[in-house]
Predict the structure.
Amino acid sequence: MTYRKKENPPRTFTNTLAGRLYSPDEAGDYLGIAPQTLAHWRVRGTGPQFIHLSKRCIRYSEQALREWLDSRTIASTVER
């Protein structure tokens, strides 16, 4: 008789002030970039703000992702 390990559904963290919390993979999907790019940006301090829950647990708030996208939105190349 073999036993199958019960698969747990992915955890969804929510914070009433910041909205949903996204894992780096989910944040990458949200932004349309690779999760590794987010890792590079975390090191450089150039990407969206993130939450460091533990040594190996990084999350991005929906609010931080939206604000970062809004700050990157421009109407013309002249604005840069």
User: Anything to note?
Assistant: The mean pLDDT is 85. DSSP finds three helices and four strands in the chain. The beta strands are 13-15, 19-22, 51-54, 57-61.
